Amino acid sequence: MPTNPVVTDIKQVTIRFSGDSGDGMQLSGTLFSTLSAIFGNEIATFPDFPAEIRAPQGSLHGVSGFQVRIGAKDVYNSGDKTDVLVAMNPAALKVNAQFLKKGSVVLFDSDSFQKKDLEKALFQTPDPFAELNLDYVQPIGVNITTLTKASLEGSELENKAILRSKNMFALGIVCRLFSRPLEIADKLLEQKFSKKPVLVKANIKALTDGYNYGDNTELSASTYRIEPIESSKGFYTDVNGNTATAYGLIAAAEKAGVQLFLGSYPITPATDVLQELSKRKDFGVKALQMEDEIAGITSSIGASFAGCLAATSTSGPGLSLKSEALGLAVMTELPLVVIDVQRSGPSTGMPTKSEQSDLNQALYGRNGESPLVVMAAASPTDCFESAFEASKIALEHMTPVVLLTDGYIANGSSAWKIPDMNDYPNIIPPYVQDKYNGNTDEWKPYFRDEETLVRYWSAAGTPGYMHRIGGLEKDRLTGVISSNPDNHQMMVDIRKAKIEKIAGYIPEQEVTGDKNADTLIVGWGGTYGHLLEASLRLSASEKKVAYTHFRHISPLPRNTYDLLKKYKKVIVAEQNDGQFAAYLGGKFQDLDNIHKYNRVEGQPFKVSALIEEFTKIMEEK
Amino acid sequence: MEATEIKTTEIKDQKYQPKDYKSENAVRWCPGCGDYAILNSLHKAMAELNIEPHMIAVVSGIGCSSRLPYYMNTYGFHSIHGRAAAIATGVKVANPELSVWVATGDGDSLAIGGNHFIHAIRRNVDINVLLFNNKIYGLTKGQYSPTSDRGFVSKSSPYGTVEDPFRPAELAFGARATFFARTIDVDIKRQSDVMVEAARHQGTSVVEVLQNCVIFNDGIHDRISDRNWKEDNTVILSHGEKMIFGKEENKGIVLDGWNLKAVTIGEDGYTLDNVLVHDATAKDNTLHMKLALMDIADGLPVALGVIRNVNEPTYEREYEKQIEEVQKKTQKKSFTEFLLNSSNIWEVK
Fold this sequence. Notes:
The complex is a heterodimer of chains A (621) and B (349).
Chain A: E1 6-9, E2 12-20, H1 25-39, E3 42-48, E4 63-71, E5 82-87, H2 90-96, E6 100-109, H3 115-120, H4 128-131, E7 138-142, H5 144-151, H6 159-164, H7 166-177, H8 182-192, H9 197-216, E8 222-225, E9 234-240, H10 241-256, E10 260-264, H11 271-279, E11 286-289, H12 293-305, E12 309-314, H13 316-332, E13 336-342, H14 359-364, E14 373-376, H15 382-397, E15 400-406, H16 407-411, E16 413-417, H17 432-436, E17 468-470, H18 485-501, E18 512-513, E19 519-524, H19 528-540, E20 545-550, E21 552-554, H20 560-565, E22 569-574, H21 579-587, E23 594-598, H22 607-619
Chain B: H1 35-49, E1 56-60, E2 75-78, H2 84-94, E3 99-105, H3 106-112, H4 114-123, E4 127-133, E5 136-137, E6 143-144, H5 168-174, E7 179-184, H6 188-200, E8 205-210, H7 222-225, H8 230-233, E9 234-237, E10 244-245, E11 251-256, E12 259-264, H9 286-292, E13 302-309, H10 315-329, H11 335-340, E14 346-348
Parallel strand pairs in B: 1-2, 1-3, 3-4, 4-8, 7-8, 9-13
Antiparallel strand pairs in B: 5-6, 7-13, 10-11, 11-12
Helix pairs in contact in B: 1-6, 3-4
């Protein structure tokens, strides 16, 4: 261990807290990222945990991690590799060794690195660092368990609870490494355990003792100092993607002046949306945990029929179950927001791992010609904007909208400037009574707005506009069931045109980067942060690269074709086998410049790999 | 458009007639189908209830029964197979002032939609489920259904089924139904009265309608509906009244140990005093279950009328109540104000 600690001023640093599923690593990580955000840093987080709730203690598949990248600015993603790894046991070290780089600090609990612990993690020798060939890292062993016990001796906590506070002692040491003021952490703990003052006291004690321990022993090869930055003025909070999605729906319902309804069924990693909206009875939100995925969407369709902003939240396997009902929403032309927090598939796949492989399902996963709106959110905070806009489109254009987020942005968080809702557009649903003003004789259920082709919304309970809808094909005016061939062709065309017309109501696609670029990097959804950083770093190394990121997938922004055709090479990068690239290729068949970069690993992109692969593609003839 | 602002069901000046609930659509069931009588009963019941047509939503799934909403001059939703109960739950919770009805069949609600059927009942959401039970798949032309008897020969069971049927009452009571009634399609008067009672009951009301499919399962309920037999083969249950039946009105249901028994009053030592009095409001559903499962094969008449009718909190009202309680504790605020008052807030000056 070096004897002269160095204080390093750096722009960004990545820290991974790692231990058993029950070690409280998610809490340590969340507290550290929140307090860093409050301190004035940019943050991006990545909770990386197993599907098992409590796997056998010390085992490799029970390792739970929380990665956070903090920086003075330009933190676009949670980072490829880690500068500091907190390993509460040997399994955590083994699983995360792949993320370590030269000079990484590894803070480990030496009490948990005994013979039996090493055996549980399948180490063969007494020196795990040597066994993993980690001669390029800086290991710092601290007997965290012993010190935590000593710290909390005489407290009101039971022995088990004392041991659980190890995570706070470790967090204290990390706070010292990064010169984080403890007052913020104390306040966060007070909020977190507001109903259990004993825990607040004990946690703060362990945290403080950990900090002081680090201070007194000048423990570390490297102490990092990341200065706060000047953000734009205003109030901030940190938010993860699922919460931001829930907030976007609430904000949209408020703008539109309608009741918000969610029908849902618990599924990883989408459950938080249901949980957050269940809390929001203060806004009168009706969030129903239904008996299955199908009841989740169908109850929402019922609520939409009765005049609510209706939504349903799910992940890939759940979307499969909702397919038939989604077709019903297309056919009945009712507003509906479907949140698909994508995870690895097919089938149950890897529930806690992120992917972008539901795009085809969202676009095509229904019987018949069944067009609808598909959108994708780019980042945790963008989930708010996207959910708001998805709701606006659903309500104003009387259509189901599938909003794709993913496990990475759903669980990841970043600092979020609290929006002023006055800056957001109004949402004006096409109410039948606004159009016909009581002249019910002039109205038929499938009369449409000439401009948007949207049929009017006559919610159940509206006097005078009683009508029948359903899954059967309808006469294009009266809504009476019809299997007339000409009528069906016309209805197929109208439903398609109605969705295409939405392109006139969404922004044009924008490009960032080099104006004279000959290569365009294309992304969509939760890969935004990684692709942006890759494109910026390529530009910085004098590569002629531009970047565009799609929120609107169906319909595409109206300038999409003109934009793509300008470049010599278009590289579509996705966490699937090329679904968006194929979609673009199918839409614009004369484009011959589309290249693909695909990784389906259940892990976020690595910026370093992106740069390497993009460079290769650019250099190809 | 906030759902809670809509006021309804107060007595209006207008007195609605059955025809006010009929849509202009031509009814397209087979001639002689039992559904016609059910539809007429429903029009009649709605007139009796005098609900404004725009405050009624009729939701259905798929099947012959599920065409019913097209023939109603109300809000109607002909949805997808099996899902009517879940859609109706959404409609009712969204706007509890609406009178919400489900038209469904034995295939729709007891096979593909079994899960939604039992969970709607369990939640006790205030919807009225008209379960048309003809023990056959009609719209797909004659396959056995989940209520077909063991051994039933149909197009998909040419050698007879090798499975036992659901008995709808058993399923409903298993899901803790607060209201269960049974009617015969052709008995418009009594059926309409039962529908009125179902509508007035707060919570999920299940009305099993023994319906005749004239094409694929004609006569399946004959022993109950045929005028020659029905008085001896059925007992009309009426809350607070003795369970008496038979052409001569001289038979009654008595308790025999744990079981029910049909007796002739004045024979074998049984008097009128021995005959059970129907209590539809008993919280314990044991006797209701026994009554609902009475079967001609066991020498017992089939029970018709309202078998169970108890008051329990309804899902949508409890939900509204919870919202009110939470809102009483927290001041009303805009979305931005809410965020500014939440934890983990910091200001950049």
